Amino acid sequence: MKKRILILCILTGSLIFSGALVKEGLAAGKKLYAMGTTQSSSSHYAYWVAAAKAINSTVPEVNVTVVESQGAMDNFKRMEKGEFDLALSIIHIHYQAYYGLEAWKGKPVRDQLALWIYQAAPQNFVIRADSGVKTVYDLEGRPFNPGMRGSGTEKTVEKILDALKVKPKLYRGGLEDTVAAMKDNKIVGYVKSGAGLVSLDASSLDIATFTPIQVLNFTDEDIKKVNAKYPYLSTIEVPAGIYKDLPAYKTFAILVGAVANKDIPEDLAYKMVKAVWEGFDMQVAAFPSCKGVKIPKLTLETCPFPLHPGAIKYYRELGNKVPDRLIPKD
């Protein structure tokens, strides 16, 4: 009997505490939103903490709580369960879900819409300059690493090579092994996800201290072929000078951004996107690789699936034309 009374007291206390939190939020006139992010050890986690701070400090109607998660796919699933209201997204995952492709074949999920994109991670095809490889087609039959084993880069590059019908002799391995293989001239190149558009990643710069390197450019025809088979693989133009005298080039990119439940009111989504862009300096301070990013431009140019109506309202307010592909049809 005493045990039952103790349990009842604990449950009652928990309910009172939870009710107090909700009451506090409601009393303050706030909507309480849970924001799914990634592991706290990731540099992206710091970005989301800064984004939430930008929102909470300028949008009095909401209180956004940053929640650690296992990343984009975990966020997608937990949004479907109603655990998260907005979250970090690897954008091509949502494209596939929205249009019912691959894992979602015939079962489209259309209740999650994009808010903004803050990073386009270029998939850099880094090649030894002495290899004779000038285009992606020159990789045919050559020893080449498509990305770190099990990574999103590896899966993306496999699709690119498949669409272009290029079959290198694939070298699988981790980053340390691959960098060593490049330096020892055992492979002609590898693909490494870049950290923004300012500089090549540290591993590629390390390789460059041992042997001259170049980065492959994809032509418009190459891009057209890839997008015909894998329309969710976005592209980006990397400006000249991210490494010595390297010219500007086009490559494919993994997009990282924010998605929201479509049931979030338009006016609140509008205010949150506005707060993030107008408070972008604190996000750059927390996540330097997004320095120089123009969120409205990057989002409108690269996002492959529809935006939340609140985001559309804000980008139009800035004077931008929103492409038809970004307007929800249902």
Name the helix and strand elements from N-terminus to C-terminus, one letter apiece.
HEHEHEHEEHEHEHEHEEHHHH
Q: Main sheet?
A: 10 strands, mixed
Number of helices: 12
Domain count: the total is 2
Indicate the radius of gyration in whole angstroms. Answer: 22 Å
Low-confidence stretches: 1-27
| Portion of residues within helices | 40-55%
- At CATH level 2, the architecture of the largest domain is 3-Layer(aba) Sandwich
How far from one another are the termini? 55 Å
The CATH superfamily of the largest domain turns out to be Periplasmic binding protein-like II
Number of strands: 10
Multimerization state: single chain
Residue-averaged pLDDT: 89
Write the CATH fold name of the largest domain.
Answer: D-Maltodextrin-Binding Protein, domain 2
Principal-axis shape: globular
Summarize the structure.
The protein is built from 12 helices and 10 strands. It is of the alpha/beta class.
Structure notes:
The protein is of the alpha/beta class. The chain folds into 2 domains: 28-120 and 255-326, Periplasmic binding protein-like II (D-Maltodextrin-Binding Protein, domain 2, 3-Layer(aba) Sandwich); 121-254, Periplasmic binding protein-like II (D-Maltodextrin-Binding Protein, domain 2). It has 12 helices and 10 strands. It has helices spanning 2-27, 43-58, 72-80, 91-98, 152-164, 175-183, 202-208, 220-229, 266-278, 280-286, 295-302, 309-317; strands at residues 31-36, 62-67, 86-90, 112-128, 143-145, 169-170, 189-193, 213-215, 234-238, 249-261. Strands 1, 2, 3, 4, 5, 6, 7, 8, 9 and 10 form a 10-stranded mixed β-sheet that branches. Helix 5 (152-164) links the parallel strand 5 (143-145) and strand 6 (169-170). The model is unreliable at 1-27 (pLDDT under 50).
